[in-house]
């Protein structure tokens, strides 16, 4: 099981970051292993996931907690895939983003690969990609 946490400061106002994270169908642009997201209804989506050896589809419940400035998700079927993204304004132009990921391997081989190969800090990489997406281009 992969359980990772990371945080970073993004050069964008908190409201911009929250709006971007609220658009769940944008998540493949910064989350490694999330290849596609299709909305099913208000808070249920089908995620296309790839763990490096196997592709799978899973139904995921996504909850927005605007008062807490947080988005949470949890798979409703198959191996665990859950997490939390929390945002906090640092100042008018910077936002702190914290990401926690929990994911079980989808197969025996994926689990074995995870145990044998060096672990990548996927949460930190996801946040770096998020920061790139939100940083204004010159």
Topology as a string of helices (H) and strands (E): EHEEEEEEHH
> Main sheet?
7 strands, antiparallel
- Please work out how many helical segments DSSP would assign: 3
Distance between the termini: 40 Å
Biggest sheet, spatial arrangement of strands: 1-7-6-5-4-3-2
**How helical, in percent, are the residues?**
10-25%
How would you summarize what this structure contains?
The chain has three helices and seven strands, in the order βαββββββαα. By secondary structure, the protein is of the alpha+beta class.
From the structure above, extract its key features.
138 residues, seven-stranded antiparallel β-sheet, globular, alpha+beta
């Amino acid at each position: 099981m992969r359980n990772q946490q990371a945080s970073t400061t993004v050069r964008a106002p908190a409201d911009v970051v929250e709006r971007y994270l609220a658009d769940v169908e944008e998540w493949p642009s910064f989350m490694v292993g999330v290849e596609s997201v299709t909305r099913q209804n208000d808070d249920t989506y089908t995620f296309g996931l790839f763990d490096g050896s196997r592709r799978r589809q899973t139904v995921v419940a996504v909850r927005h907690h605007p008062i807490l400035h947080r988005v949470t998700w949890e798979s409703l079927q198959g191996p665990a895939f859950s997490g939390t993204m929390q945002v906090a304004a640092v100042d008018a132009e910077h936002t702190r983003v914290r990401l926690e990921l929990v994911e079980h391997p989808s197969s025996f081989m994926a689990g074995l690969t995870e145990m044998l190969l060096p672990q990548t800090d996927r949460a930190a990489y996801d946040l770096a990609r998020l920061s790139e997406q939100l940083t204004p281009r010159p």
